[in-house]
């Protein structure tokens, strides 16, 4: 009936609007049952369950044999770790596989078979599940005693395929690889040529005393290549040149030329190429996200135009304002955006909306103003108004910064004076007294600011929340110190009472005071720009961090399989790799080895391929990608700072999409309609 059709159109529009908000593809089934399943699948509960499942299956590596459940990773002091019985982690793993099977089944059904065969990620998802389940069955058949578990290396794929932004980032990286490969090849040529020169220059001579450079670094081709590769990272500089330099100063020219050409030219050239290419590909990816948003909004308009409320004699499609209000009430979206769209709709006072008007209403989704600070309280008392003016003035904040600086300087003076004193010789009276004075000032400053600004406005500023929290912590610590040790007095010396000694309490207070000095950052414009750039990167780096987790995880699992059992008890005369003792379990693999070797320290000849691959992916490629995003974010913020005056009562946040908003091109009407007519499940009559 007509009523059922109208309900279907409303529900289709709701889903299309939600797709637009989340930059999702609209190429999915649009019948009533499928729409219900689609909204259920993308509900917070289902996505939370899926995210928890991914977290659990990745975390199993910390529990599985070899277990990370030990206090220390040092083989000399480590007690035997608890290893779960066979079948425990496998049962949890099976439950995770069942969730993933449901996930891939629902996704495959919703997009339809025609789209399924075009989706390589879904096909890879199914293949990964099949291989993992096969490996799981093999593991149980061997009673969990097998050493090689392929499914552990495949686990990061579940994290990767669940994030559209991670997939876009990975696609951008893949597109950048040809340009990166040319510079990496040039680096390899540079390394090979200088290796040949080094082997000729530092060849073995008759005088064994003069062959220290040859013995230590250039004995054979693998050693020479490794020494110069590590020098390329500056990890062994200047150690590698000391023996040759001791023999003849002229040898330093070789190492200087190698370092200048490799580090200053080729590595920076690689950074420039990655920045240029990756920015271009990321921009294309973000442009496609904008197209998805506009397409979703236009699809919602088209299905709403089928409602019987549209005038029959209209020359073009229209949507009634009432229908749009119904959609907004049902759609899951940010309350600020929803209220802004409803407000704009009321201001427009149009009963019928054209496609352009409909699209313009949803431009609120693209705006980046997220928070307006509450107004200051209005006092009737003349005295309170004066207080509000004085203590709400920026100069009062500057005075607080000067006091905080004086506090830091006084702490530095005391620490320098007491640096060489024994704990029993210290007199903490002066340090305790000045801390007491400054903390009282901080508490008074916080209370006066709350009176001047009002509690809501005071808490609406992140800098005030940071300042206030540390002030409260300092006050609590100071009260606890007085309760245990009494008020500061001459001869106030440390003594152990309770959990912390007096000196520990004073050090803890001083650390918080030093940390509190960061409050000056918002008052220094350039420093504030740098800090906000870093904070925005933290918000927007989920995709980058996710791929980095994937790389860390895969290399850690591979390292465990390759180097398991390579630990030699201390005192053994056979020399093995010292760092092999660190590959006993997953946590040590990540924390000690991969993070430490990010700066490169190669020891074992037969393990060089593994670590060179890790260095290339982490230090050469990934660090440069991070620099590219950092530069892009900073340049964008700098341009906005130069061209627009900041509004004091409005805070802004930048997402990856909003970062490129000024240079994105709006899709044309023809492009949108052409794409809509290609929709596999939505039939448009016009």
Automatic annotation (TrEMBL):
Enzymatic reactions: Na(+)(in) = Na(+)(out); Ca(2+)(in) = Ca(2+)(out)
Membrane topology of this protein: Multi-pass membrane protein
Keywords: Calcium, Calcium channel, Calcium transport, Endosome, Glycoprotein, Ion channel, Ion transport, Lysosome, Membrane, Repeat, Transmembrane, Transmembrane helix, Transport, Voltage-gated channel
Major subcellular location class: membrane
Residues annotated as domain Ion transport: 68-278, 395-634
Membrane-crossing residue ranges in chain numbering: 41-63, 84-102, 122-145, 180-202, 253-275, 395-417, 429-448, 468-487, 499-521, 541-567, 579-603, 609-631
Pfam family name, one: Ion_trans
GO aspect biological process, one term: endocytosis involved in viral entry into host cell
SUPFAM superfamilies xrefs: Voltage-gated potassium channels
Coiled coil residues, start to end: none
Transit peptide listed as a keyword: no
GO molecular function, one term: ligand-gated sodium channel activity
Entry keyword annotation includes Glycoprotein: yes
Family to which the UniProt record says this protein belongs: Belongs to the calcium channel alpha-1 subunit (TC 1.A.1.11) family. Two pore calcium channel subfamily.
Name listed for the protein in its UniProt record: Two pore channel protein 2
Originating organism: Ardeotis kori
Annotated gene: Tpcn2_1
